Amino acid sequence: MEMITKMVMERPVVIYSKSLCCMSHTIKTLLCDFGANPAVYELDEISRGREIEQALLRIGCSPAVPAVFIGGELVGGANEVMSLHLNGSLIPMLKRAGALWV
After folding, report:
1. Can you point out the beta strands (E) in 1-102?
2. Does the CA dihedral 44-6-99-64 come out positive or negative?
3. Which one-letter DSSP state was computed for residue 73?
4. What is the pLDDT of residues 27-39, one digit of tens each?
5. What is the pTM of this model?
6. Mean pLDDT to the nearest integer, 70-96
7. Which residues does UniProt assign to the signal peptide (predicted)?
């Protein structure tokens, strides 16, 4: 958990993903299209990826990917991010976190 805490504090938006996960791809595309420039950690391609995946499950990410953190706080997975987008809350949240300057 300490490793995740450190990683999510380094950038305004952090996504934990797997390279072949279609929902992860969708969320990465959405946030990049907004200009958020998230830090993306592909858990199937990095060392300690399995350990991070287990930690994400322990903190309530189910499924573990995609797991999106904005401003150091867990937002959730694809469903939560899409809900925020559809209700108009995602862009203001990204702005507050310093991920967007528009």
Report:
1. 13-17, 39-42, 67-70, 73-76
2. positive
3. E
4. 999 999 999 999 9
5. 0.95
6. 97
7. none
Question: How far is 34 from 54, CA to CA, in rounded Å?
Answer: 29
Closest CA to 30 of 20, 40, 42, 43: 40
pLDDT of residue 29: 97
Contact 99, 69 (CB under 8 A): no
| Whether the predicted pLDDT of 2 surpasses 70 | yes
Percent of the chain having pLDDT more than 70? Answer: 99
Closest CA to 68 of 38, 43, 98, 88: 38
Indicate the DSSP class of residue 39. Answer: E
Q: Please answer whether residues 66 and 91 qualify as being in contact, where contact means their C-beta atoms are separated by less than 8 angstroms.
A: no
Backbone angles phi, psi at 39, to 5 degrees: -80, 125
